[in-house]
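Model the whole thing, not chain by chain.
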Amino acid sequence: EIVMTQSPATLSVSPGERTTLSCRASQSISSNLAWYQQKPGQAPRLLIYGASTRATGIPARFSGSGSGTEFTLTISSLQSEDFAAYYCQQYSDWLTFGPGTKVDIK
Amino acid sequence: QLQLQESGPGLVKPSETLSLTCTVSGDSISSSTYFWGWIRQPPGKGLEWIGSIYYSGSTYYNPSLKSRVTISVDMSKNQYSLKVTSVTAADTAVYYCARHPGYCSGAKCYYLSWFDPWGQGTLVTVSS
């Protein structure tokens, strides 16, 4: 099983700041990685797939990069609606998720 | 616009069977380019894929749950269902249904992909 890790577990950020979240796979997954945003009481929403392709309707301030075992999700200028939990998911071998990073207000 | 809606009992007793249904609207569950999956999230914790089904009935399950899980499809109702047997408190979670790209060609299926969209989720508590 491919194990996904995310860092940090919690990130305190001020609105308008640039934010980078990290996701690591226990073995190479090529670009078979997706990112989701989840707000309290809501279902996850797909942000990025293929490591760097934005899903339909996702603002350009969200960008993904990386391949192999190291991936990042960058939010160029954090908006109030972006404070949420973020999960990565690999789909190279079975389907597994990372433990998540919570982005809260500094 | 595609929508998925989970339904089923919110409370299940230990050792019994958890049963949920996902009703799909805005798209046909017999679409040849998608799988239909179940994911769960224990309160305050992360996400765990349970399994997925293709309209033809081909299924793939998380190895850690495979012995207790069955997913089935009812094309006439545009629904698919989840059963988890012998539940314990560890099965308490919000259960989501979600669509993900994939297809089957002959005996080979390609289902490894991302989930989009998701249903709103339903909380199932296992307690006596």
